[in-house]
Amino acid sequence: MAAIGLPALAMMIVWEPYRMERIAGYLHPEEFSQGVNYQTNASLRAIGAGGFWGQGIGNGLTKLNSIPEVQADYIFAGWTEAMGFVGVALYFAVLCVFAWRAYKRAFYCPDRFGAIGTFGCISAIFFQSLANVAVVCAAIPSTGIPLPFFSAGGSSMIVTLCMCGFMINAARGDCESSEDYSDKEDDDSLEVLNEAGVYERL
Question: Which residues contact residue 82 at a Cβ distance below 8 angstroms, ignoring those fewer than 6 apart?
């Protein structure tokens, strides 16, 4: 899959000029500071202005650190400026707990469809979140993907909520009922009739 996917990804990048500009801007940020890297530079200023405690809810995104269309792909920069390092740590703590609970359900769910679907949904949400944060911090080139649960956009929010609904249904429906049913079967199989004619557990 990698042998086919990597060349296809390279062709997709070369095919569109704006994608090549993003790669060039990532490799040479000082030459594209007023062009493709304008949002990224503004994002880095906003992150630095947040400090440790942040400037408070509603006080972020000052005129100096204004980011165009911040409600879309760069919403995490606004959150960082407002809440600081504490807010970033809180976000990653919630994200990791959410991912851990979903992965745990995926690995222990006896229903194969529910397990594979849950694994795919949480992987999409988790790694998309990491990719968006990496773009905001200028760790990788701009990708244009939103931050799940935060970025404005109807289609992205609908798809994310649908994936969460699938995971909740897998956790509360087939998985738990299958576990309960398997537990009952195991309990019944442990009961045997002894010599006195009384059922006892081994």
Answer: 50, 54, 55, 56, 57, 58, 59, 60, 61
From CA 184, how far away is CA 108, in angstroms rounded? 17
Q: What is the DSSP string of 88-130?
A: HHHHHHHHHHHHHHHHHHHHH-S-HHHHHHHHHHHHHHHHHHH
Q: Tell me, what's the pLDDT at 35?
A: 79
DSSP summary character for residue 148: T
DSSP letter for 51, please.
T
Both tokens of residue 169? 């249904």
Using DSSP's 3-state secondary structure scheme, residue 200 falls into strand
Given a contact cutoff of 8 angstroms between Cβ atoms, the answer to whether 117 and 166 are in contact is: yes
**What global pTM score does this model have?**
0.77
What is the distance between the alpha carbons of residues 36 and 25, in angstroms, rounded to a whole number?
6
Q: Is there a contact between 87 and 103 (Cβ–Cβ < 8 Å)?
A: no
Question: In percent, how much of the chain has pLDDT > 70?
Answer: 82
Is the CB of residue 72 less than 8 Å from the CB of residue 142? Answer: no
Cα separation of 80 and 51, whole Å?
Answer: 9
120-174, pLDDT tens digit by residue?
999 999 999 999 999 999 899 888 889 999 998 788 899 999 999 999 998 886 5
